[in-house]
Write a structure and sequence with these properties.
With about 450 residues, this protein is mainly beta. The protein has a single domain, classed as TolB, C-terminal domain (Neuraminidase), CATH 2.120.10.30. Helices cover about 5% and strands about 35% of the residues. About 45% of the residues are buried.
């Protein structure tokens, strides 16, 4: 075959592949759709200019009916991948972390305990389930410290405190009582999950704290507003019942040096640190009450000192109608999130894929669990998505990776929460509706 004909065929193949990808990418209003349009490999790209006006649709209350998982039900995954049941019979498994020796630590939040799961070499199902610690107040975030093969502590974030347990690789039970590292996290009603990560070579401990209310309802007038409060607080800081909330808080590893790292983030449920650039990322639940397609949840890099809008603005300089005219000084100071997700998806935990078991194109991308809507006329979420990156920078697109947790408009059997990458490169997904953890591996085409 001549070089010219080879080049023409190669170009044609590339164009066909590009057309196929483009056909799978939903943009504009169609990108906001519901669970019926979900399928592995389908991409969405929601952009700022696509946002509808507030109240374009009525705000809905549409709580799912949780049903027993049908015997044959499995998550739907892309061609070449396989989903298998890794663990079952758990009590609402939520966040997961992988220990240096490969053990899987799972927060069974409502049961107040942390469970250790272990699979034998080459096995695809957990053989060991051991209580590491119990009697805790809704444990959620976990982090091993220091990073690397020999951590000395397991840090655990609860609604009111950050604790740490003495730890050595291979421990399946706590070596002693926990030490209280931070004892005064914001308390009260509202979002109570707290995630925790270490950044900047373990010198910085970050803790996410969600808002007390949906849309800043309980804040009232700022004390000393305007000049005094603004002069004494970081950009976009909230007050009253929302003091130090809707934010990421920063500490040193001993709990000192407390300050606001970033503000205006309604509920950063999950955090992760990219190994490519060292950026801190958040998976965020945005506010309710503005319609089916407002306000988009999002996944974003979080910059120190940045303000992300809540409650006065959303997705840039869009004014929240409940706070119109309240903070004109902030209108041009809002950081726009990197990746906009279908509104009300309830974006939860996330993890970067740095292993080599999946095809090379997956390396450096993030997997994010979407717990699923209760406040949209047609359900959205209830899946795991892949957030695309290039050289550590998000492209703005995301792709359905694991779907099939919704049975029909009324019933669901699974609600993804936790994401972790096992030592063998498989992706682990916890869901707290049926109490299962799924193992997704690449088996080839």
């Amino acid at each position: 075959m001549s070089p010219r004909r080879t080049l023409l065929l190669t170009s044609a193949c590339l164009m066909a592949a590009l057309s196929a990808v483009t056909a799978q990418t939903l943009t504009g209003p169609s990108a906001f759709g519901d669970w019926r349009a979900d399928k592995p490999g389908r991409s969405r790209h929601i952009q700022v200019d696509d946002l509808p006006r507030p109240g374009a649709t009525r705000s809905a209350s549409n709580t799912p009916r949780i049903v027993r998982r049908p015997a044959a039900a499995l998550p739907d995954v892309p061609e070449g991948f396989k989903a298998e049941l890794f663990a079952e019979g758990l009590s609402g498994p939520r966040l997961m972390r992988v220990a240096p020796n490969g053990d899987i630590f799972v927060a069974e939040t409502y049961a107040g305990r942390i469970r250790v799961l272990r699979a034998a070499d080459g096995a695809t199902k957990a053989a060991l389930k051991q209580d590491f610690a119990s009697g805790l107040d809704r444990p959620f975030g976990m982090a091993f410290f220091p990073s690397g093969p020999n951590p000395r502590f397991l840090y655990v974030a609860t609604p009111r405190a950050v604790l740490r347990f003495p730890y050595a690789p291979g421990d399946v039970a706590a070596r002693g009582e926990p030490q209280r590292v931070v004892g005064d996290l914001p308390q009260g009603a509202g979002h109570w999950t707290r995630d925790i990560v270490f950044a900047r070579d373990d010198t910085l401990m970050l803790v996410s704290v969600g808002s007390a209310g949906n849309d800043g309802e309980g804040m009232g007038e700022a004390p000393g507003w305007r000049e005094d409060f603004v002069a004494r607080h970081p950009l976009g800081a909230s007050w009253g019942s929302e003091t130090d909330r809707a934010a990421v808080l920063a500490f040193d590893p001993e709990g000192g040096g407390r300050h606001l790292f970033a503000t205006g983030i309604r509920n950063c449920v999950g955090m992760a640190v990219s190994s490519v650039k060292g950026d801190v990322w958040c998976s965020v639940n945005e506010r309710d009450g503005l319609g089916d397609d407002l306000v988009p949840d999002y996944v974003t890099r979080v910059r120190e000192g940045a303000f992300y809008g809540w409650p006065w603005y959303y997705i840039g300089s869009h004014a929240d109608p409940h706070h119109a005219g309240a903070r004109p000084d902030l209108a041009d100071k809002v950081t726009v999130p990197d990746v906009l997700i279908q509104a009300h998806s309830a974006s939860m935990e996330m993890a970067f894929y740095e292993a080599s078991a999946f095809p090379p194109a997956y390396r450096g991308d993030a997997f994010v669990a979407e717990h699923g809507s209760w406040n949209r006329s047609k359900r959205t979420g209830y899946k795991v998505i892949r957030v695309r990156t290039k050289d550590g920078v998000p492209t703005g697109e995301y792709e359905d990776f694991a779907t099939g947790f919704v049975l029909n408009d009324a019933e669901v059997w699974g609600r993804p929460v936790g994401i972790a990458v096992a030592h063998d490169g498989a992706l682990l997904v916890s869901e707290d509706a049926s109490g299962t953890i799924w193992r997704i591996s690449y088996v080839g085409k």
